[in-house]
Amino acid sequence: xxxxxxxxxxxxxxxxxxxxxxxxxxxxxxxxxxxxxxxxxxxxxxxxxxxxxxxxxxxxxxxxxxxxxxxxxxxxxxxxxxxxxxxxxxxxxxxxxxxxxxxxxxxxxxxxxxxxxxxxxxxxxxx
Length: 127
Known about the structure:
Layout: H1 4-25, E1 31-34, H2 37-44, E2 52-58, E3 61-62, H3 70-78, H4 82-90, E4 93-98, E5 101-106, H5 107-115
Antiparallel strand pairs: 1-5, 2-3, 2-4, 4-5
Helix pairs in contact: 1-2, 1-3
């Protein structure tokens, strides 16, 4: 029997280059990556629908444990790639996987952007 964790790792590794690009783009806006359903079905060895999870990375670490969920554990393992890990240490990000789409939100950038917009000249508030 093939180890499911290793199979899922190979699927996530296939998408890692795209995830790296979208992580960078998430500084501007939320990103979505569509994935191939058959990749996940092949890795699991069964036709299964309903793969879904949300995981938040704060200071480079997942905010919850996902014991027994090989799909999420494989995803976390793949995100330990040096380039991705470096990004996750600098930015708090949220990943939501549903309907074979991975949504990436950079929560750090969005907060800073909203708080640090400069006032344009002539738009200053006077009391």
